[in-house]
Amino acid sequence: KGTMLSIPLLHDSYTLAEWPLTVSNADSASVRAIGIIPSVPVFSSMLSASTLPATPAFSASGVAFANNSAVGKWSVNATLNRNCYYQFTVVADSSHQIRIDSLLLNSSFLGSANGTIAVVYSTSGFTNDSTDIASAIGASGIGLPASNYGAFIHPAKLSKIAGTNDSTIRFMPDSNIIISPKDSLTIRLYYGLGSTNTPRFAYLKNVIVKGHPTDITLPVSLINFSANYKQGITTLSWSTSNEVGTSAFSVEKSADGIIFSALTSVPSHNSTGVNNYSISDNVAQKGTIYYRLKMIDRSGKYVYSKVVKINTDNKGSFIVYPNPVKNELTVDFNGTSGNTQASILSLTGKELIRFPLQSGITNKTISVASLAKGEYLLVIQGKQGELNTFKFTKD
């Protein structure tokens, strides 16, 4: 009768940053963890209600906002829009590595129970990657259903505001997110409302990012770390620079993204220039496998890379090409597809093309000749509701 979580509620999970949003959009310096650089959230295609005396921008219920802040109207209605979000950023300083495991917030709508919220995050400022939240726990303490857990096409439902907006939702990724020194995690909250009445302001407060900071002073810089699975072999590659006093790299492997064990150790080139490494994992166990890189200094200090994952039963490992594309886009499923359907969306979230994916196919060619030049999203949905999103450019 309980709820199984992919990430346990870790005993060493602390508040990293909190934005109360009751008097301003500044974070709370009193609870900000060591290693976190303060940042201010920003709106995109939304405005706070500062122009309405009856609905102040900030109150005990949090920040009030809408597409049209003059009347509290939502032009996007129930359909979420990729250009309409409230963005928060967690920034690590130069001497700390940050583990992030959950996001907590209080949110609701004025006068309507038809509001929704989706949570999407990126480690590149939405330049090279974009990942939907994997699960959530609702205000009642029960896990949200697969149809409404907070992903962009499965947004979580928000209740009508009661009291001072005290219903807390906890969102979680599918594995811990590791932020290296000087890197950041960008979180976007997308809102929609199935009501055209006014005023219908959204309220948000107590946005809390939880995890754990680790003091790191290694001089080595990790340029990239990636994994590619094909024909029973996983190839792990990484590049570094500024290897001053670096001893070795330990490649670690996990079946659940939580408990890792050492796969192999690779000696450091110990060169200040760009260094390239590659190793193979020939153990083709089925399912999702997680990898991370432990970079070890001669002094014994170490820092972890971000966690990368691959799927050896070929239900989540894709290659999309060419990019940019002129007429035909190909999806290589790196084996056998068990996915159910795919869609091409505009960056505003409008579905332009939808097509089924038959079980057992190894690749799919999609005609995009009719699309105008610009950027689009390819979204592949699996049988369990899992999503894989790719951005591509139509020439």
Q: What share of residues is helical? A: under 10%
Class by alpha and beta content: mainly beta
Question: How many strands appear in the DSSP assignment?
Answer: 31
Overall geometry: globular
Largest sheet: 9 strands, antiparallel
Number of helices, where a helix is a run of at least 4 consecutive DSSP H or I residues: 0
What share of residues are in beta strands?
A: over 45%
Radius of gyration: 22 Å
- Low-confidence spans: none
Measured between the Cα atoms of the first and last residue, the distance is 51 Å
Query: What is the average of the pLDDT values?
Result: 85
Descriptive labels:
mainly beta; seven-stranded antiparallel beta sheet; 0% helix; globular; single chain; nine-stranded antiparallel beta sheet; 395 residues; 31 strands
